[in-house]
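sry for the spam today, last one i promise. struct tokens for design, 118 residues
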């Protein structure tokens, strides 16, 4: 191995051993100071998560309501269109007497209908 690599490994091992020896005294004091701040930070994150989750739930309900209203309107429009088409068909059938229909069909097939009109 190259000497620079060996020196880097040696420094890394030395720092690791030094931290392992000093960690009980350093981290005990640091944990006493940092723990309340970390706990507050965690509580803030939990609050933000809960508020976001609640907001998403409200938005989901809003979208569900909106889709239900739109679906109801589409169904009402289709029913109105079908009712209107049925009324138009019924009125068209009622305007032409049944007795004249075979006569008009016969005139159309012989071609007399166009000559009689002129």
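last one done:
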């Amino acid at each position: 191995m190259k000497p620079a690599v060996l020196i880097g490994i040696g420094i890394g091992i030395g720092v690791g051993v030094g931290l392992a020896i000093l960690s009980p005294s350093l981290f005990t004091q640091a944990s006493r100071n940092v723990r309340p701040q970390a706990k507050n930070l965690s509580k803030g994150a939990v609050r933000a998560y809960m508020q976001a989750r609640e907001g998403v739930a409200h938005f989901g309900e809003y979208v569900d309501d909106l889709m239900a209203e739109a679906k109801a309107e589409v169904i009402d429009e289709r029913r109105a269109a079908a009712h209107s088409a049925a009324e138009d068909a019924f009125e068209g059938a009622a305007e032409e007497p049944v007795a004249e229909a075979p006569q008009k069909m016969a005139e159309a097939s012989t071609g007399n209908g166009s000559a009689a009109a002129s």
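Residues 113-118 have pLDDT under 50 and may be disordered. ok im logging off now
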